Amino acid sequence: MLIAVLGGLGAALLWAASNLASSRSTRMIGSMSVLAWVMAVGLVLDVLFIIATRTPVTLDRSTLGWMAVAGFGNAFGLLLLLSSLRLGKVGLATSITSTEGAVAAVYSVLAGEKLPTAAYVWLAVIVLGVVGATLADDQHAIPGERRTLAALMAIGAALISGASIYATGFISNDVALAWVLLPPRIVGVVVIAVPLALAHRLQLNRASIPLVLVTGVAEIAGWLCYAVGARYSIAVAAVLSSLFAAFATIGAFTLFRERLSRHQLLGVGLIIAGVATLTATIG
Protein backbone atom coordinates (compact mmCIF):
# COMPACT_ATOMS: atom_id res chain seq x y z
CA MET A 1 0.00 0.00 0.00
CA LEU A 2 2.86 2.39 0.78
CA ILE A 3 4.20 2.02 -2.76
CA ALA A 4 0.73 2.81 -4.14
CA VAL A 5 0.62 5.97 -2.01
CA LEU A 6 4.12 7.05 -3.01
CA GLY A 7 3.46 6.27 -6.68
CA GLY A 8 0.21 8.26 -6.72
CA LEU A 9 1.68 11.24 -4.88
CA GLY A 10 4.79 11.14 -7.04
CA ALA A 11 2.66 11.24 -10.18
CA ALA A 12 0.59 14.14 -8.82
CA LEU A 13 3.67 16.18 -7.91
CA LEU A 14 5.37 15.49 -11.25
CA TRP A 15 2.27 16.36 -13.29
CA ALA A 16 1.81 19.52 -11.24
CA ALA A 17 5.42 20.49 -11.96
CA SER A 18 4.89 19.74 -15.64
CA ASN A 19 1.84 22.02 -15.80
CA LEU A 20 3.51 24.82 -13.86
CA ALA A 21 6.56 24.78 -16.14
CA SER A 22 4.50 24.64 -19.32
CA SER A 23 2.30 27.52 -18.17
CA ARG A 24 5.40 29.75 -18.41
CA SER A 25 7.02 28.26 -21.52
CA THR A 26 3.83 28.51 -23.60
CA ARG A 27 3.89 32.28 -23.08
CA MET A 28 7.47 32.39 -24.36
CA ILE A 29 7.39 30.19 -27.47
CA GLY A 30 3.72 29.24 -27.97
CA SER A 31 1.68 26.11 -27.28
CA MET A 32 2.55 24.28 -30.50
CA SER A 33 6.30 24.61 -30.01
CA VAL A 34 6.08 23.56 -26.36
CA LEU A 35 4.07 20.48 -27.29
CA ALA A 36 6.54 19.61 -30.05
CA TRP A 37 9.56 19.79 -27.74
CA VAL A 38 7.79 18.02 -24.86
CA MET A 39 6.80 15.13 -27.11
CA ALA A 40 10.31 14.98 -28.58
CA VAL A 41 11.82 14.77 -25.10
CA GLY A 42 9.28 12.12 -24.10
CA LEU A 43 9.90 10.11 -27.27
CA VAL A 44 13.65 9.97 -26.64
CA LEU A 45 13.15 8.91 -23.02
CA ASP A 46 10.51 6.30 -23.89
CA VAL A 47 12.58 4.76 -26.69
CA LEU A 48 15.62 4.59 -24.40
CA PHE A 49 13.45 2.91 -21.76
CA ILE A 50 12.17 0.34 -24.26
CA ILE A 51 15.70 -0.42 -25.45
CA ALA A 52 17.11 -0.63 -21.92
CA THR A 53 14.37 -2.96 -20.67
CA ARG A 54 13.95 -4.85 -23.98
CA THR A 55 10.19 -4.65 -23.47
CA PRO A 56 8.46 -7.08 -25.86
CA VAL A 57 5.25 -6.20 -27.70
CA THR A 58 2.70 -8.03 -29.83
CA LEU A 59 0.38 -5.85 -31.90
CA ASP A 60 -2.73 -6.75 -33.90
CA ARG A 61 -5.02 -4.51 -35.95
CA SER A 62 -7.41 -3.80 -33.07
CA THR A 63 -4.59 -2.89 -30.69
CA LEU A 64 -3.03 -0.58 -33.27
CA GLY A 65 -6.39 1.15 -33.71
CA TRP A 66 -6.79 1.80 -29.99
CA MET A 67 -3.16 2.94 -29.77
CA ALA A 68 -3.87 5.46 -32.54
CA VAL A 69 -6.88 6.81 -30.62
CA ALA A 70 -4.78 6.98 -27.46
CA GLY A 71 -1.94 8.70 -29.30
CA PHE A 72 -3.94 11.39 -31.08
CA GLY A 73 -6.19 11.96 -28.05
CA ASN A 74 -3.25 12.39 -25.69
CA ALA A 75 -1.28 14.66 -28.01
CA PHE A 76 -4.10 16.98 -29.01
CA GLY A 77 -5.63 16.96 -25.53
CA LEU A 78 -2.28 18.14 -24.22
CA LEU A 79 -2.16 20.81 -26.93
CA LEU A 80 -5.50 22.21 -25.74
CA LEU A 81 -4.31 22.12 -22.13
CA LEU A 82 -1.13 24.01 -23.05
CA SER A 83 -3.24 26.58 -24.90
CA SER A 84 -5.48 26.93 -21.85
CA LEU A 85 -2.46 27.42 -19.60
CA ARG A 86 -1.18 30.12 -21.95
CA LEU A 87 -4.45 32.06 -21.81
CA GLY A 88 -5.61 31.52 -18.24
CA LYS A 89 -4.76 30.53 -14.71
CA VAL A 90 -3.01 27.29 -13.84
CA GLY A 91 -5.49 26.36 -11.11
CA LEU A 92 -8.53 26.69 -13.33
CA ALA A 93 -7.00 24.95 -16.37
CA THR A 94 -5.58 21.99 -14.47
CA SER A 95 -8.69 21.49 -12.34
CA ILE A 96 -10.99 21.32 -15.36
CA THR A 97 -8.59 19.09 -17.29
CA SER A 98 -8.25 16.76 -14.30
CA THR A 99 -11.82 15.61 -15.06
CA GLU A 100 -10.42 13.58 -18.00
CA GLY A 101 -10.76 10.40 -15.95
CA ALA A 102 -14.41 11.20 -15.24
CA VAL A 103 -14.93 11.82 -18.96
CA ALA A 104 -13.43 8.39 -19.69
CA ALA A 105 -15.95 6.92 -17.23
CA VAL A 106 -18.77 8.59 -19.18
CA TYR A 107 -17.46 7.10 -22.41
CA SER A 108 -17.44 3.68 -20.75
CA VAL A 109 -21.09 4.15 -19.74
CA LEU A 110 -21.99 5.12 -23.31
CA ALA A 111 -20.25 1.94 -24.43
CA GLY A 112 -22.48 -0.12 -22.15
CA GLU A 113 -20.52 -0.42 -18.91
CA LYS A 114 -22.48 -0.09 -15.67
CA LEU A 115 -21.19 2.11 -12.85
CA PRO A 116 -22.21 2.20 -9.17
CA THR A 117 -25.10 4.59 -8.44
CA ALA A 118 -22.82 6.79 -6.33
CA ALA A 119 -20.61 7.36 -9.38
CA TYR A 120 -23.38 9.27 -11.14
CA VAL A 121 -23.76 11.55 -8.13
CA TRP A 122 -20.06 12.42 -8.22
CA LEU A 123 -20.18 12.94 -11.97
CA ALA A 124 -22.91 15.51 -11.34
CA VAL A 125 -20.75 17.17 -8.66
CA ILE A 126 -17.86 17.40 -11.13
CA VAL A 127 -20.08 18.97 -13.80
CA LEU A 128 -21.37 21.46 -11.23
CA GLY A 129 -17.80 22.32 -10.26
CA VAL A 130 -16.71 22.85 -13.87
CA VAL A 131 -19.70 25.08 -14.64
CA GLY A 132 -19.24 27.04 -11.41
CA ALA A 133 -15.49 27.56 -11.89
CA THR A 134 -16.00 28.60 -15.53
CA LEU A 135 -18.81 31.08 -14.96
CA ALA A 136 -17.70 32.51 -11.60
CA ASP A 137 -16.74 36.16 -11.33
CA ASP A 138 -13.00 36.81 -11.09
CA GLN A 139 -11.62 39.72 -9.09
CA HIS A 140 -8.02 38.55 -9.51
CA ALA A 141 -7.52 38.44 -13.28
CA ILE A 142 -3.95 38.09 -14.54
CA PRO A 143 -2.48 40.23 -17.36
CA GLY A 144 -3.67 39.08 -20.78
CA GLU A 145 -6.07 36.50 -19.33
CA ARG A 146 -8.90 35.23 -21.54
CA ARG A 147 -10.76 33.27 -18.91
CA THR A 148 -13.73 31.96 -20.89
CA LEU A 149 -11.64 30.78 -23.83
CA ALA A 150 -9.09 29.21 -21.48
CA ALA A 151 -11.89 27.34 -19.68
CA LEU A 152 -13.40 26.13 -22.96
CA MET A 153 -10.00 24.85 -24.11
CA ALA A 154 -9.55 23.04 -20.79
CA ILE A 155 -12.97 21.44 -21.23
CA GLY A 156 -11.96 20.38 -24.75
CA ALA A 157 -8.71 18.97 -23.35
CA ALA A 158 -10.67 16.90 -20.83
CA LEU A 159 -13.03 15.55 -23.50
CA ILE A 160 -10.23 14.57 -25.90
CA SER A 161 -7.88 13.26 -23.21
CA GLY A 162 -10.77 11.27 -21.76
CA ALA A 163 -11.05 9.45 -25.08
CA SER A 164 -7.32 8.74 -24.90
CA ILE A 165 -7.64 7.34 -21.39
CA TYR A 166 -10.60 5.20 -22.45
CA ALA A 167 -8.62 3.81 -25.40
CA THR A 168 -5.59 3.22 -23.19
CA GLY A 169 -7.78 1.13 -20.89
CA PHE A 170 -8.43 -1.30 -23.74
CA ILE A 171 -4.77 -1.99 -24.33
CA SER A 172 -3.21 -1.54 -20.89
CA ASN A 173 -3.57 -5.22 -19.96
CA ASP A 174 -2.09 -6.47 -23.23
CA VAL A 175 0.61 -3.87 -23.98
CA ALA A 176 3.47 -2.82 -21.70
CA LEU A 177 3.35 0.76 -20.38
CA ALA A 178 6.44 1.79 -22.35
CA TRP A 179 4.62 0.94 -25.59
CA VAL A 180 1.38 2.55 -24.40
CA LEU A 181 3.27 5.81 -23.85
CA LEU A 182 4.83 5.68 -27.31
CA PRO A 183 1.93 6.62 -29.67
CA PRO A 184 1.28 10.14 -28.28
CA ARG A 185 4.94 10.98 -28.58
CA ILE A 186 5.16 9.65 -32.12
CA VAL A 187 2.06 11.67 -33.06
CA GLY A 188 3.47 14.77 -31.40
CA VAL A 189 6.78 14.50 -33.24
CA VAL A 190 5.49 13.42 -36.66
CA VAL A 191 2.32 15.52 -36.85
CA ILE A 192 3.45 18.64 -34.98
CA ALA A 193 7.23 18.88 -34.43
CA VAL A 194 8.40 17.87 -37.91
CA PRO A 195 5.95 20.14 -39.83
CA LEU A 196 6.84 23.07 -37.55
CA ALA A 197 10.55 22.45 -38.11
CA LEU A 198 10.11 22.19 -41.90
CA ALA A 199 8.15 25.45 -41.90
CA HIS A 200 10.84 27.10 -39.73
CA ARG A 201 8.23 27.81 -37.04
CA LEU A 202 9.58 25.56 -34.29
CA GLN A 203 10.64 27.99 -31.59
CA LEU A 204 13.02 27.62 -28.66
CA ASN A 205 15.00 30.17 -26.68
CA ARG A 206 17.43 29.99 -23.79
CA ALA A 207 14.86 30.87 -21.14
CA SER A 208 12.38 28.22 -22.31
CA ILE A 209 14.84 25.30 -22.53
CA PRO A 210 14.80 24.30 -18.82
CA LEU A 211 11.01 24.73 -18.68
CA VAL A 212 10.48 22.50 -21.71
CA LEU A 213 12.83 19.87 -20.29
CA VAL A 214 11.04 19.91 -16.93
CA THR A 215 7.68 19.55 -18.66
CA GLY A 216 8.78 16.67 -20.89
CA VAL A 217 10.62 14.71 -18.20
CA ALA A 218 7.99 15.29 -15.48
CA GLU A 219 5.10 14.35 -17.78
CA ILE A 220 6.45 10.92 -18.70
CA ALA A 221 8.00 10.29 -15.24
CA GLY A 222 4.58 10.95 -13.72
CA TRP A 223 3.09 8.16 -15.81
CA LEU A 224 5.82 5.78 -14.70
CA CYS A 225 5.20 6.65 -11.03
CA TYR A 226 1.50 6.09 -11.47
CA ALA A 227 2.09 2.74 -13.18
CA VAL A 228 4.30 1.52 -10.33
CA GLY A 229 1.77 2.60 -7.72
CA ALA A 230 -1.16 1.09 -9.64
CA ARG A 231 0.47 -2.34 -9.50
CA TYR A 232 -0.23 -2.36 -5.76
CA SER A 233 -3.55 -0.46 -5.72
CA ILE A 234 -5.15 1.13 -8.76
CA ALA A 235 -7.71 3.00 -6.66
CA VAL A 236 -5.18 4.52 -4.25
CA ALA A 237 -2.75 5.51 -7.00
CA ALA A 238 -5.52 6.98 -9.16
CA VAL A 239 -7.09 9.03 -6.36
CA LEU A 240 -3.77 10.46 -5.20
CA SER A 241 -2.50 11.17 -8.72
CA SER A 242 -5.69 13.14 -9.45
CA LEU A 243 -4.54 15.64 -6.81
CA PHE A 244 -2.12 17.14 -9.36
CA ALA A 245 -4.67 19.92 -9.92
CA ALA A 246 -4.60 20.86 -6.24
CA PHE A 247 -0.79 20.83 -6.17
CA ALA A 248 -0.66 22.93 -9.35
CA THR A 249 -3.10 25.45 -7.88
CA ILE A 250 -1.00 25.78 -4.73
CA GLY A 251 2.18 26.03 -6.80
CA ALA A 252 0.72 28.74 -9.03
CA PHE A 253 -0.25 30.80 -5.98
CA THR A 254 3.16 30.32 -4.36
CA LEU A 255 5.33 30.86 -7.45
CA PHE A 256 3.25 33.15 -9.65
CA ARG A 257 0.87 34.79 -7.15
CA GLU A 258 -2.13 33.60 -9.13
CA ARG A 259 -5.28 33.92 -7.06
CA LEU A 260 -8.72 32.46 -7.67
CA SER A 261 -11.93 34.14 -6.53
CA ARG A 262 -14.00 32.51 -3.80
CA HIS A 263 -16.52 31.17 -6.28
CA GLN A 264 -13.73 29.84 -8.51
CA LEU A 265 -12.15 28.14 -5.50
CA LEU A 266 -15.50 26.59 -4.66
CA GLY A 267 -15.83 25.25 -8.19
CA VAL A 268 -12.24 23.96 -8.18
CA GLY A 269 -12.83 22.34 -4.79
CA LEU A 270 -15.92 20.54 -6.10
CA ILE A 271 -13.96 19.32 -9.14
CA ILE A 272 -11.04 17.98 -7.09
CA ALA A 273 -13.30 16.34 -4.49
CA GLY A 274 -15.54 14.90 -7.20
CA VAL A 275 -12.66 13.51 -9.26
CA ALA A 276 -10.96 11.96 -6.24
CA THR A 277 -14.16 10.39 -4.86
CA LEU A 278 -15.37 9.19 -8.26
CA THR A 279 -11.99 7.55 -8.89
CA ALA A 280 -12.17 5.80 -5.53
CA THR A 281 -15.78 4.72 -6.20
CA ILE A 282 -15.10 3.07 -9.56
CA GLY A 283 -11.48 2.08 -8.83
Account of the protein in words:
- The protein is mostly helical.
- It has one domain.
- The protein has 13 helices and no strands.
- It has helices spanning 2-29, 31-53, 61-87, 90-97, 100-110, 117-135, 147-171, 177-180, 182-198, 209-230, 234-241, 244-256, 262-282.
State the domain count.
Answer: 1
Kindly report the average pLDDT value: 88
Radius of gyration: 18 Å
Number of helices: 13
N-end to C-end Cα span? 15 Å
Order of helices and strands: HHHHHHHHHHHHH
Unreliable parts: none
Structure summary, number of beta strands: 0
Backbone shape: globular
Class from secondary-structure proportions:
mainly alpha
Amount of helix: over 70%
Note the beta-strand portion. Answer: under 5%
How would a textbook summarize the main sheet? none
Keywords:
mainly alpha
Write the layout of secondary structure elements.
Blueprint: H1 2-29, H2 31-53, H3 61-87, H4 90-97, H5 100-110, H6 117-135, H7 147-171, H8 177-180, H9 182-198, H10 209-230, H11 234-241, H12 244-256, H13 262-282
Would you summarize the structure shown here?
The protein is built from 13 helices and no strands. By secondary structure, the chain is an all-alpha fold. The mean pLDDT is 88.
